[in-house]
User: Which sequence fits this backbone?
């Protein structure tokens, strides 16, 4: 494989990010707690990283705006449509695996 230019790498990373966001929007059956328990991040984490990237570039982006960019709708709407109550097992697993600050 040939070395990528910075621009090519950025473009590929951006395309992969857009595909990930699209995939997560389609997979509304996958709950955030499942993602946290298996991968250590969820849609909310991704929206926080998105907002962090904006702040690093002096772009003012609210928490609601960054979540809308990831969820494709207001977070409250996504929760009402797709979020299910976490089971006791899911909550217990999250307590064991949750990120420690």
Assistant:
């Amino acid at each position: 494989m040939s070395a990528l230019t910075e621009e090519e790498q950025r473009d590929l990373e951006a395309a992969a990010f857009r595909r990930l966001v699209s995939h997560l929007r389609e997979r509304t059956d996958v709950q955030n707690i499942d993602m946290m328990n298996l991968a250590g991040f969820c849609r909310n984490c991704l929206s926080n990283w998105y907002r962090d990237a904006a702040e690093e570039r002096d772009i003012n982006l609210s928490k609601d705006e960054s979540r809308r960019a990831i969820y494709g709708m207001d977070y409250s709407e996504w929760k009402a449509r797709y979020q299910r109550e976490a089971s006791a097992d899911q909550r217990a697993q999250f307590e064991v695996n949750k990120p420690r600050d």
